[in-house]
Amino acid sequence: MFNSTHTLVGLAIARTGLDEWVPRAAITAVIASNLPDIDIIADLSSMPSYLEQHRGITHSLVGIPLLSLLLAGAMYVFTRSFWRTFVVALLAMATHPVLDFSNTYGLRPFLPFDGAWYYGDTLFIIDPIMDLILLLGIIAGEFFKKARWVMSFAALVLVLLYVGTRINARNEAQAHLDSYTARVADFERSAVLPRLMDLWTWDGIVETKDSIFKVNIDTTQGVGKEVARMPRGQTTEIISNAAKAPSAAAILEFARFPVTRIQGLQFGYRVTFLDFRFFDEANKTSIFVAEVQLDNGMHIVKDTLVANVTID
User: Fold this and answer.
1) Distance between CA 211 and CA 1 in Å, rounded?
2) 214 pairs with which residues across the strands?
3) By the 8 A CB rule, do 162 and 199 touch?
4) 290 Cβ contact list (under 8 Å, min separation 6)
């Protein structure tokens, strides 16, 4: 989720009474709710490193308690209460992977033992409605200070109700897609993806033996028309050699619906690796795209991973 949501959730949790239980609870909770994203420093190394490390160990069932202990130790000089500070940090920080799980980017909660990705497919990565609910609860608490904890608690309950509504809508969209894919030849798997501030319209991704395509889903009417399709790309010697490049390896490890495209060049091949869930059919662009150039001897001569590429 966007860091505004993490921050507001942390602050709302602190104001349910924890800020009266331990000093600097609000500061602790805000830091804790954002701290797992410290893995973003991997971006300073390279884009492949960012994909490999982001939402990794710092977002896992192992990493969250350890980070909470470290934060409690750092905040002890201000709070003078290690274990109470740890409880605040753990409560706030535990919301971070839960929120991140709720969107389509995914999460690897069982690192370092299991690197499998899990996806909630419920909330768009930026949710202004959730942010507004939390912000109003926090502001109301400033006007009614004696009932501040009530306002924050109410805001958190409303957020849970909102998320529950979106879960129900996602399940309806998935049910429509399941009925649709029952008639699709060579069907393998599917997913429904949320849209920004839209409870009724979802994107459906369908993978078959040979291709991946996207359909629109209306929770009140069912599956609509197909809006984009790409061949998956069969494994060949060209693809196998290109997949050894660091950028390609990072994309293939991260991608949920990988697509591979080969373009013949005068002196070799250009192989493109992308994740179809991040393909924008309206603008013909995709984020996190690896491009690998091979010479005629199948040797890697160029290897790049970029954040936004036009896909012909």
Assistant:
1) 30
2) 205, 228
3) no
4) 245, 247, 248, 250, 251, 272, 273, 274, 303, 304, 305
- Give the residue ranges of the chain where pLDDT is below 70: 42-44
Q: Which residues contact 192 (CB under 8 A, 6 or more apart)?
A: 121, 170, 173, 174, 177, 202, 203, 204, 205, 217
Alpha-carbon span 99 to 59, nearest angstrom: 11
The full DSSP string for 216-247 is EEETTTEEEEEEEEEE-----HHHHHHTTSHH
Listed residue (294, 188, 157) closest to 239, CA to CA: 294
* Start-end of H helices in 144-221: 148-181
For 124-151, letters b (16+ CB in 10 Å) and e give: beebeebbebbbebbebbeeeeeebbbb
Sheet holding 279-280, edge to edge: 279-280, 285-286, 309-310
> Do the Cβ atoms of 193 and 104 come closer than 8 Å?
yes
Strands of 222-231's sheet in order across:
187-195, 198-208, 211-218, 222-231
**Predicted local distance difference test score (pLDDT) of residue 150:** 95
58: closest CA among 44, 38, 83?
Answer: 38
The amino acid that residue 218 corresponds to is D
Q: List, in sequence order, every residue forming a beta bridge with 259; answer none if it has no partner.
A: 274
Helix (H) or strand (E) holding 89: helix 82-101
pTM: 0.92
The single-letter code of the amino acid at 173 is A
In the block, which residue shows the tokens 């991973």? 305
Which structure tokens are listed for 49?
């490193």
DSSP code, position 58: G
**Residue 98 and residue 35: Cα distance in Å, rounded?**
14
Q: Looking at residue 182, what DSSP letter applies?
A: T
CB 71 within 8 A of CB 50: no
**Cβ(72)–Cβ(22) below 8 Å:** no
pLDDT of residue 49: 82
